[in-house]
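Subject: Lysine exporter LysO family protein

B.,
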Amino acid sequence: MGTTLGTLLNLAIYIGLVAVGAVIGSRRAVRSRPMPWLGKLQFLALMILIVSLGVKLGANDEVISSLGQIGLAALLITVLAMAGSLLCLYLLRRFVFHLDRYGLPQGSAQETEETEGSGGKADNSLTKWIVLAVALGMLAGYFVIPDRMVAYCGRVIDFGLYLLLFLVGMDMGRQGTMLADIKAAGLKVLLVPVAVAAGTLGCAALAGLFLPLGIKDAMAASAGFGWYSLAPTLLAPYSLSVSAVAFLSNVMREIFSIIAIPFVAKYLGYVECAALPGAAAMDTVLPVVVGATHERIAIYSFTSGVVLSLAVPLLVPAIVALPF
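Prediction pasted inline below.
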């Protein structure tokens, strides 16, 4: 119950921050002013957030010790789960939503404009900064920063995340198309987390065919959808080994997503970026998705992350209870 209430409270805070930022950004006085500092502030906050996350992971003995013991199993589950999510969301975007790679209706005037123009904000230069920030953070957490300082990383991550969500909302409001984007997405946006979950669990089951874990345990490990602080806790009473695989796999999913999103945005499609981070698409990875794509994709990413986050406490125990 406590976990569920905590999840709902976090969701309320995240939604409130994005909404407040969008309202402020949509005001005429704000929209009419050039704000070149807004993007720079988002980038700075994102780097602080990612470095802090790296420090926290690098200082975590469980993460480091698990790399050698269960790293291969976690890696295979993660890679296949992310690939399955991408495939399912790609098919959904093309054949159900009928959207182009920029997340626009196929054949629309706006599609032509973006195709002939810059094509959005996808920029692979973001990737090198993300990789560098994660690597430096983990190295600093493991070798340099004392444990008493690492304890404050959680607060830095929280406040950095709050600032980023507010800035993302403000950026959405400044575009002046937020309501139109929400209307265009409609209730069908709820199919996005369904596709992500189906791709994740289906391909995790495929990974289980090649692992000693088996199909059921591989699915259970992947059902955290990147929520590495909750899924292992739910799995610990069932199996400590599966819990450890789940922890490392979900950590990998968040890190790999942050690194891969700019490439997916450039070479596959904007909407598909929401598939990679799973539950983290609503919080820590949302600014990366928006930064690599367009503000309108925030609707798909945020909705998917919210639904998947709410599904984790239900799906993990349900998979564990399967009679095989």
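Residues 2-27+40-320 form a domain with the Na+/H+ antiporter like fold fold (CATH 1.20.1530).

T.
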